[in-house]
Automatic annotation (TrEMBL):
Homotetramer. GO terms for molecular function: thiaminase activity. The keyword Hydrolase applies. This is Aminopyrimidine aminohydrolase. The lineage of its organism: Bacteria, Bacillati, Bacillota, Bacilli, Bacillales. It comes from Effusibacillus lacus. Pathway: Cofactor biosynthesis; thiamine diphosphate biosynthesis. It is an enzyme of class 3 (hydrolase). Keywords: Hydrolase, Thiamine biosynthesis.
Protein backbone atom coordinates (compact mmCIF):
# COMPACT_ATOMS: atom_id res chain seq x y z
CA UNK A 1 0.00 0.00 0.00
CA UNK A 2 1.80 3.13 -1.12
CA UNK A 3 1.07 6.71 -0.29
CA UNK A 4 0.70 8.69 -3.47
CA UNK A 5 0.36 12.43 -3.18
CA UNK A 6 -2.08 14.19 -5.38
CA UNK A 7 -0.75 17.03 -7.45
CA UNK A 8 -1.66 20.46 -6.19
CA UNK A 9 -1.78 19.43 -2.51
CA UNK A 10 0.37 21.09 0.15
CA UNK A 11 1.77 17.69 1.17
CA UNK A 12 2.74 17.00 -2.45
CA UNK A 13 4.44 20.39 -2.62
CA UNK A 14 6.44 19.68 0.59
CA UNK A 15 7.37 16.17 -0.53
CA UNK A 16 8.74 17.62 -3.78
CA UNK A 17 10.69 20.35 -1.95
CA UNK A 18 12.26 17.78 0.39
CA UNK A 19 13.03 15.25 -2.33
CA UNK A 20 16.80 15.78 -2.54
CA UNK A 21 17.10 15.42 1.25
CA UNK A 22 14.96 12.26 1.26
CA UNK A 23 16.96 10.70 -1.59
CA UNK A 24 20.10 11.21 0.52
CA UNK A 25 18.41 9.25 3.34
CA UNK A 26 17.47 6.39 0.99
CA UNK A 27 21.13 6.15 -0.08
CA UNK A 28 22.70 6.57 3.34
CA UNK A 29 25.01 3.63 4.24
CA UNK A 30 23.11 3.08 7.50
CA UNK A 31 19.87 2.53 5.56
CA UNK A 32 21.37 0.48 2.71
CA UNK A 33 23.38 -1.46 5.32
CA UNK A 34 20.17 -2.45 7.12
CA UNK A 35 18.58 -3.48 3.81
CA UNK A 36 21.50 -5.63 2.67
CA UNK A 37 22.37 -6.86 6.16
CA UNK A 38 25.94 -5.50 6.18
CA UNK A 39 25.49 -2.80 8.85
CA UNK A 40 27.58 -3.70 11.93
CA UNK A 41 25.23 -4.47 14.84
CA UNK A 42 26.94 -2.09 17.27
CA UNK A 43 25.78 0.82 15.10
CA UNK A 44 22.22 -0.50 15.06
CA UNK A 45 22.33 -0.88 18.84
CA UNK A 46 23.44 2.75 19.09
CA UNK A 47 20.53 3.71 16.81
CA UNK A 48 17.96 1.73 18.85
CA UNK A 49 18.99 3.38 22.11
CA UNK A 50 18.92 6.88 20.60
CA UNK A 51 15.60 6.07 18.92
CA UNK A 52 14.04 5.09 22.27
CA UNK A 53 14.93 8.57 23.53
CA UNK A 54 13.63 10.04 20.26
CA UNK A 55 10.30 8.19 20.51
CA UNK A 56 9.72 9.19 24.13
CA UNK A 57 9.92 12.84 23.09
CA UNK A 58 7.99 12.19 19.85
CA UNK A 59 5.06 10.94 21.96
CA UNK A 60 5.20 14.17 23.99
CA UNK A 61 4.98 16.17 20.75
CA UNK A 62 1.97 14.12 19.59
CA UNK A 63 0.31 14.65 22.99
CA UNK A 64 0.88 18.40 22.72
CA UNK A 65 -0.77 18.14 19.30
CA UNK A 66 -3.76 16.51 21.03
CA UNK A 67 -3.90 19.45 23.45
CA UNK A 68 -3.89 21.97 20.59
CA UNK A 69 -6.41 20.17 18.38
CA UNK A 70 -9.48 22.18 17.33
CA UNK A 71 -12.02 19.44 18.13
CA UNK A 72 -12.52 16.36 20.31
CA UNK A 73 -12.17 13.93 17.40
CA UNK A 74 -8.73 15.29 16.46
CA UNK A 75 -7.61 15.34 20.14
CA UNK A 76 -8.59 11.69 20.32
CA UNK A 77 -6.72 10.79 17.15
CA UNK A 78 -3.53 12.61 18.21
CA UNK A 79 -3.70 10.91 21.63
CA UNK A 80 -4.15 7.58 19.84
CA UNK A 81 -1.03 8.32 17.78
CA UNK A 82 0.92 9.07 21.00
CA UNK A 83 -0.30 5.73 22.39
CA UNK A 84 0.87 3.99 19.22
CA UNK A 85 4.33 5.50 19.66
CA UNK A 86 4.37 4.14 23.21
CA UNK A 87 3.46 0.68 21.93
CA UNK A 88 6.14 0.90 19.22
CA UNK A 89 8.71 1.97 21.78
CA UNK A 90 7.77 -0.95 24.02
CA UNK A 91 8.15 -3.37 21.12
CA UNK A 92 11.47 -1.75 20.26
CA UNK A 93 12.74 -2.00 23.83
CA UNK A 94 11.54 -5.47 24.61
CA UNK A 95 12.28 -7.02 21.23
CA UNK A 96 15.41 -5.30 19.96
CA UNK A 97 16.93 -4.67 23.39
CA UNK A 98 16.90 -8.39 24.14
CA UNK A 99 18.16 -9.26 20.63
CA UNK A 100 20.95 -6.68 20.84
CA UNK A 101 22.00 -7.37 24.40
CA UNK A 102 21.12 -3.90 25.70
CA UNK A 103 21.77 -4.19 29.44
CA UNK A 104 20.50 -2.19 32.44
CA UNK A 105 24.02 -0.82 32.62
CA UNK A 106 23.73 0.43 29.00
CA UNK A 107 20.45 2.13 29.88
CA UNK A 108 21.84 3.69 33.08
CA UNK A 109 24.75 5.18 31.15
CA UNK A 110 22.67 6.41 28.23
CA UNK A 111 23.14 10.00 27.09
CA UNK A 112 21.27 11.50 24.13
CA UNK A 113 23.68 12.18 21.26
CA UNK A 114 23.82 15.77 19.90
CA UNK A 115 21.66 15.06 16.84
CA UNK A 116 18.98 13.09 18.74
CA UNK A 117 18.83 15.91 21.27
CA UNK A 118 18.70 18.66 18.62
CA UNK A 119 16.07 16.94 16.46
CA UNK A 120 13.70 16.25 19.36
CA UNK A 121 14.25 19.74 20.74
CA UNK A 122 13.28 21.16 17.33
CA UNK A 123 9.99 19.22 17.42
CA UNK A 124 9.27 20.10 21.06
CA UNK A 125 9.91 23.77 20.33
CA UNK A 126 7.33 23.67 17.51
CA UNK A 127 4.94 21.72 19.77
CA UNK A 128 5.08 24.30 22.57
CA UNK A 129 5.00 27.42 20.40
CA UNK A 130 3.20 26.43 17.19
CA UNK A 131 -0.24 25.49 15.92
CA UNK A 132 -1.44 21.93 15.28
CA UNK A 133 -0.69 22.49 11.57
CA UNK A 134 2.90 23.38 12.43
CA UNK A 135 3.17 20.33 14.71
CA UNK A 136 1.94 17.97 11.98
CA UNK A 137 4.40 19.55 9.51
CA UNK A 138 7.28 18.99 11.97
CA UNK A 139 6.40 15.34 12.68
CA UNK A 140 5.27 14.25 9.22
CA UNK A 141 8.75 13.49 7.79
CA UNK A 142 9.23 11.02 10.67
CA UNK A 143 6.18 9.05 9.59
CA UNK A 144 6.37 9.47 5.88
CA UNK A 145 10.11 8.96 5.28
CA UNK A 146 10.06 5.70 7.27
CA UNK A 147 7.07 4.50 5.28
CA UNK A 148 8.90 5.19 2.02
CA UNK A 149 11.97 3.36 3.34
CA UNK A 150 9.78 0.43 4.45
CA UNK A 151 8.20 0.25 1.00
CA UNK A 152 11.43 0.76 -0.91
CA UNK A 153 13.16 -2.11 0.90
CA UNK A 154 10.15 -4.40 1.19
CA UNK A 155 11.72 -6.98 -1.11
CA UNK A 156 15.07 -6.86 0.72
CA UNK A 157 16.01 -10.03 2.54
CA UNK A 158 18.84 -9.06 4.90
CA UNK A 159 20.51 -12.11 6.49
CA UNK A 160 20.24 -10.37 9.89
CA UNK A 161 16.75 -11.14 11.32
CA UNK A 162 16.73 -7.96 13.43
CA UNK A 163 17.02 -5.88 10.26
CA UNK A 164 14.24 -7.88 8.63
CA UNK A 165 11.98 -7.12 11.60
CA UNK A 166 12.76 -3.42 11.34
CA UNK A 167 12.00 -3.29 7.60
CA UNK A 168 8.78 -5.26 8.07
CA UNK A 169 7.59 -2.89 10.82
CA UNK A 170 7.65 0.18 8.59
CA UNK A 171 6.49 -1.54 5.40
CA UNK A 172 3.24 -2.74 7.00
CA UNK A 173 -0.26 -1.59 6.06
CA UNK A 174 -1.04 -0.53 9.65
CA UNK A 175 1.78 2.02 9.45
CA UNK A 176 0.73 3.25 5.98
CA UNK A 177 -2.74 3.93 7.38
CA UNK A 178 -1.37 6.17 10.15
CA UNK A 179 0.85 8.04 7.69
CA UNK A 180 -2.02 8.61 5.26
CA UNK A 181 -4.14 10.01 8.09
CA UNK A 182 -1.48 12.58 9.04
CA UNK A 183 -0.90 13.60 5.41
CA UNK A 184 -4.65 14.25 5.05
CA UNK A 185 -4.61 16.20 8.33
CA UNK A 186 -1.71 18.34 7.09
CA UNK A 187 -3.58 19.15 3.86
CA UNK A 188 -6.83 20.09 5.59
CA UNK A 189 -5.04 22.27 8.18
CA UNK A 190 -2.97 23.93 5.42
CA UNK A 191 -6.14 24.81 3.51
CA UNK A 192 -7.23 27.11 6.37
CA UNK A 193 -3.76 28.33 7.35
CA UNK A 194 -2.47 31.82 6.66
CA UNK A 195 0.39 32.32 4.22
CA UNK A 196 2.64 32.97 7.21
CA UNK A 197 1.63 29.70 8.90
CA UNK A 198 2.16 27.71 5.70
CA UNK A 199 5.62 29.25 5.40
CA UNK A 200 6.43 28.04 8.93
CA UNK A 201 4.99 24.60 8.16
CA UNK A 202 7.30 24.31 5.17
CA UNK A 203 10.31 25.31 7.25
CA UNK A 204 9.51 22.80 10.01
CA UNK A 205 9.00 20.02 7.44
CA UNK A 206 12.33 20.71 5.73
CA UNK A 207 14.28 21.00 9.00
CA UNK A 208 12.82 17.68 10.21
CA UNK A 209 13.76 16.14 6.84
CA UNK A 210 17.35 17.32 7.36
CA UNK A 211 17.41 15.88 10.87
CA UNK A 212 16.11 12.52 9.60
CA UNK A 213 19.18 12.33 7.38
CA UNK A 214 21.43 13.50 10.23
CA UNK A 215 19.95 10.81 12.50
CA UNK A 216 21.30 8.04 10.19
CA UNK A 217 24.64 9.79 10.09
CA UNK A 218 24.62 10.08 13.91
CA UNK A 219 24.05 6.34 14.33
CA UNK A 220 26.49 5.35 11.57
CA UNK A 221 29.27 7.36 13.20
CA UNK A 222 28.11 6.67 16.78
CA UNK A 223 28.15 10.40 17.36
CA UNK A 224 29.40 11.76 20.68
CA UNK A 225 29.59 15.23 22.21
CA UNK A 226 32.90 16.86 21.24
CA UNK A 227 33.96 17.40 24.86
C1 LIG B 1 14.38 9.17 14.00
C2 LIG B 1 13.08 8.48 13.71
N1 LIG B 1 12.29 9.01 12.77
C3 LIG B 1 11.12 8.41 12.47
C4 LIG B 1 10.72 7.25 13.11
C5 LIG B 1 9.44 6.55 12.74
O1 LIG B 1 8.45 6.88 13.61
C6 LIG B 1 11.59 6.74 14.12
N2 LIG B 1 11.28 5.61 14.80
N3 LIG B 1 12.76 7.38 14.38
Amino acid sequence: MTVATETGTFSGYLREKADAIWQASFQHPFVTGVADGTLPLDRFKFYVMQDAFYLSRFAQVQALGAAKAPDLYTSGRMAFHAQTTYNAELALHEGFAADLGITDEDKAQFQPAPTAYAYTTHMLSVAYTGTLGEIIAAILPCYWLYLEIGERFKGAKPAEPIYQKWIDAYGGDWFAELVREQIARLDSLAAYATEEERRKMEQHFLISSQYEYSFWEMAYRKETWPV
